[in-house]
Structure formats: structure tokens, C-alpha cells
Write a sequence for this structure.
């Protein structure tokens, strides 16, 4: 039966940040549509507030699951106020170490899965004339590291989509927020959760450090998922919500340093990059100069 409470629809809600978001929403008195590939893993969450939690099986790479879950959410609560695309997984491996099939699988879940759920929910948000879409990216969606090529590619793609989406849906009263967490104390890097590509000796000194770091930091990350959930809720409630929300001191520092380096490079190479205007009086001057130089080299 529809209620007047705010409704959050969360993918990947059975563990990690998704579970923290679901618990936060329950404490706040929100309705929660908690989804995961295995609905059985959501039983304990549903038991916290049976009248306000709907557990649904949802593999974001399965369109039928998506359609069924969205339909069930509307039937139960009458609306969806906040869609949180959280489902995803990490992968470590150099480009050369990573089979193309694994690149594609990473994109299918982390990027196309979010696309599929977003497209399924958007008609409802437009009909309501309001709502929010939250795409959980990473500090790795703004910058990357050796060994994070597939993961960062999926998050960079998600952020590019989100920037365009924000402009497309703003006229309907829908906001978009990209969340860029740093290291949260979840099972993201636990044994079996983080997908490791077969190691090549040539990349041992380059990627091996990251493999070890992700393994060793499990259980000692600085970021509290519950506080990260609260931070997102504050951003959602703001009159002027940010397009991007960095969460964690590590994410804030890394994104700031990356942006500052970008600005330094922009300033250093601005003259070279700007000096490409077409000269209407001599449109072929550069081509002719290159051709003359090639002829001189050939004659030498």
C-alpha cells in the first residue's frame, strides 16, 4: 500500500555501502526498496522494518529483474524518491593482464547496470515531477592508478553519463549526485570480493603494490560507511545539491591534487594548445611547411 514516506531504491543493498545506506534510511523512517542478486541476503534487513522495507532480487545485468523490481516498488510504496545505483565490484590488473572479457564484464555491471536501472526508474521520476538519482562512483572515477584500468574506466563512464543526465533531467525537477568515496570499511577489498587478474611478472613492481595494498587495508580503512550514508543524505536534502560529492579525507585530498595538477598542465600547455587557429589568408601554410620539410629530408 502506498505511503507518504520518502522511498529509497538501492541496488547492491546486501553488503558494504549499500547496506549502510539501507540501514540509514530505515533509521530515518524512509521506505526502502533493498535489492541484491540474492533476495535471501536481504532477509535480516527486511526484518528491521517489515512495513517499510521491500526486498527484491535484482541482478543489474538482467533487464527482467530490473523491470520486476521497479514495478514491485511502485506497487508497494507508490513512488520512488531516490534511486541509488550502488551495485558494482572492483578489479585489479594492468591493461595487458586483463582479458577483454573481464573489461566487458566490469562495464556490464558497474556502468550498463546503472544505465539499465536508471532508464527503468526515470519514467516514474518524471511523472512525479521530482526525485533524485545517485550514482555511486569512486575517487577512482576522477583519477586512476596503475592496476585500476577496468574499474576506473567503468566509473569514468558512469560519471560522464551522470553529467549529461543531470542536465537532461533538471527541467523535470530531478537532481543527480555522483558520489566519490575513498576507502570505506566494507568488504569491497575482502578476499573473493575484489577480482584479481592473473599477474604478469613484467608488471609485478608496477601493479603488485596495489594488489598488496588493497589486501592489507581490508578491515583498517578510515571511512565509516554509516557516516558516509549520512553525508549523502545531507547532500540530498540540500537546496543546492552538489553534482559530485567526495566522501572521505583520502578522496578529497586525491581529487584536489588531481584537479590542481590538471590546472597546472592546462596553464603550462595553454599557448601550444591554443595556437591552432586557421589562418584565413594561408589555410595550407602548416601543411605546406610540413611538406617542404619532408622533401628536404628526403633529398638529404
Amino acid at each position: 500500500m502506498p505511503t507518504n514516506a520518502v522511498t529509497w531504491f538501492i541496488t547492491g543493498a546486501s553488503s558494504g555501502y549499500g547496506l549502510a545506506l539501507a540501514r540509514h534510511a530505515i533509521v530515518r523512517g524512509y521506505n526502502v526498496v533493498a535489492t541484491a542478486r540474492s533476495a535471501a541476503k536481504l532477509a535480516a534487513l527486511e526484518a528491521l522494518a517489515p512495513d517499510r522495507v521491500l526486498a527484491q532480487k535484482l541482478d543489474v545485468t538482467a533487464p527482467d529483474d530490473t523491470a520486476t523490481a521497479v514495478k514491485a516498488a511502485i506497487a508497494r510504496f507508490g513512488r520512488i524518491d531516490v534511486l541509488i545505483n550502488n551495485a558494482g565490484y572492483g578489479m585489479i590488473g594492468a591493461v595487458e593482464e586483463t582479458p577483454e572479457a573481464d573489461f566487458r564484464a566490469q562495464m556490464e555491471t558497474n556502468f550498463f547496470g546503472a544505465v539499465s536501472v536508471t532508464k527503468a526508474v526515470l519514467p516514474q521520476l518524471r511523472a512525479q515531477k521530482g526525485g533524485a538519482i545517485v550514482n555511486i562512483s569512486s575517487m577512482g572515477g576522477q583519477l586512476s592508478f596503475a592496476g585500476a584500468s577496468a574499474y576506473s574506466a567503468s566509473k569514468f563512464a558512469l560519471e560522464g553519463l551522470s553529467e549529461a543526465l543531470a542536465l537532461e533531467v533538471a527541467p523535470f525537477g530531478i537532481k543527480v549526485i555522483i558520489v566519490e568515496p575513498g576507502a570505506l570499511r566494507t568488504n569491497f577489498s575482502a578476499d573473493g570480493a575484489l577480482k584479481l587478474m592473473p599477474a604478469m611478472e613484467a608488471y609485478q613492481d608496477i601493479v603488485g603494490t596495489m594488489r598488496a595494498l588493497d589486501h592489507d587495508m581490508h578491515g583498517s580503512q578510515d571511512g565509516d560507511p554509516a557516516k558516509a550514508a549520512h553525508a549523502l543524505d545531507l547532500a540530498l536534502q540540500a537546496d543546492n545539491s552538489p553534482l559530485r560529492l567526495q566522501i572521505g579525507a583520502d578522496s578529497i585530498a586525491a581529487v584536489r591534487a588531481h584537479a590542481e595538477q590538471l590546472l597546472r598542465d592546462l596553464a603550462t600547455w595553454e599557448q601550444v594548445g591554443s595556437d591552432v587557429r586557421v589562418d584565413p589568408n594561408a589555410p595550407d601554410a602548416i601543411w605546406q611547411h610540413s611538406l617542404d620539410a619532408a622533401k628536404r629530408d628526403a633529398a638529404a
The radius of gyration is 23 Å. The first helix runs from residue 16 to 27. The chain has one domain: 7-273.
